Amino acid sequence: MKVLVTGGAGYVGSIVTEELLKEGHHVIVLDNLQQGHRRAILPEAELVQADICDIKALGNVFGRCKIDAVMHMAAETVVEYSMSDPKRYFQNNVVGGINLLDTMIKHGVDTFIFSSSAAVYGEPQSIPVEESHPKLPVNAYGESKLMFERILEWYGKAYGLKHISLRYFNAAGASERLGCDQHPETHLIPNVLKAALNSDSPVTIFGTDYPTKDGTCIRDYIHVVDIAQAHVLALGKLENLTGNVYNLGNGEGYSVLEVVETAKRVTGVDIPAIISSRRLGDPAVLVASSTRAKSELDWKPRFSELESIVESIWEWMKEHPSGYDE
Asked: pTM for this structure?
């Protein structure tokens, strides 16, 4: 199958591409490279440098490549920035997404896997969070993801678009070949490990006054390779599961301080940390129920322990201390 992966030079997208290639698919990566990296694109994949907001460029790709399916991961993702510049998020995550869907329909492509987010839920009313949980985003990033999920429902009804949305919780870890190199880096685990590599750059803990066991945010960390494998499974089962949404998480939460302590054990470094105020739009606790994905997609996460997740990204970062720019 010929699969277009938007945002395929980014963290999750590059590893989704890697898993698709392992399954024998032909992969075309579409990325504007503003946040992604050329070196994150494996040589077996084809790169098209373009933006989903560029309708003409999208038309050229679909006209030339005879695409069978789309995995859509291109997005603005920094929660904190979405609170200060929501326009940018709605422009890229919603308007750009509509451009992509319209181009697909024009070229007869009806198979779509969407990279959504646990941010659609907002502050959880119950833990673990199930797919039926009320959707009340507390930041513009989550709102943009929820808006696009709803757009997919209408495109499915009106145009026969077959689609599945995968709501990630906290992606973490690395594959043997690919890792996480984002600018700015907002993921907790890479920032903790950067502090381990460079004691002059302490990790910042945003808020110690949350209503949690130690006052810091609790998150559900899911290995990025497990996320990528869920995409491959969703593609294979889309015909019978169209319109469904699935949480991707481990079902167990760890606080920021627990992550720091785990990183200390893995690295053997006394990682420096500084305390700062809360970030806008950060819920206190986000932990997933992934029962539906395990049952309907036959998804079996292989890296469920926090220590194994931290070890995988630590090994990659030691080999790539400057990320993909070295």
From this structure: 0.93
